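Subject: sequence -> C-alpha cells, single chain

Hey, anyone have a minute? Need the predicted structure for the following. Not urgent.
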Amino acid sequence: MNDSESAAPPDPRHRSGSSPVHGAVDHRGRPVARRSSGQWTSAFFIIGMETAERSAYYGVSSNLINYLSGPLREKTAVAAAAVNTWAGVTSALPVVAAFLADAYLGRYWTIVVASILYVLVSILS
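Reply:
Had a minute. Here:
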C-alpha cells in the first residue's frame, strides 16, 4: 500500500484542485491549502518586515557608540563594551524566539507578536 492509497479523503472546506499541506495548520487549527495560503502576500510582508528590521539595526548600531560617548558621556571603552553586548544579545535573540515558536507559540503567532513589538517600539521611540 503506497501513500496515495492510505491518504485521508480530501477536506470539503478546500476548493477543488487545492490539496492540503500535510501536517500544516493555520492559526485557527484548520488544515492549510497550498492554493489559498501564504504566497506573495506573505512573502511581501516578511520581506518588508525584514527590510525594516535590518534598517533599524544598522541605523542604531552605526550611531550607538557616538550617542553613548557623546550625550551620555560614557568612556569610549565602556560604550564599545555596551555596543558589543547589544550586538551579541540581538544576535542570540532569534534562537530564543525560535525556541518559543517551536515549543509554545507556533510560527504564525510568533510572527504576529514580533511584528506588533516592532511597530510599538517604532511608534514609542
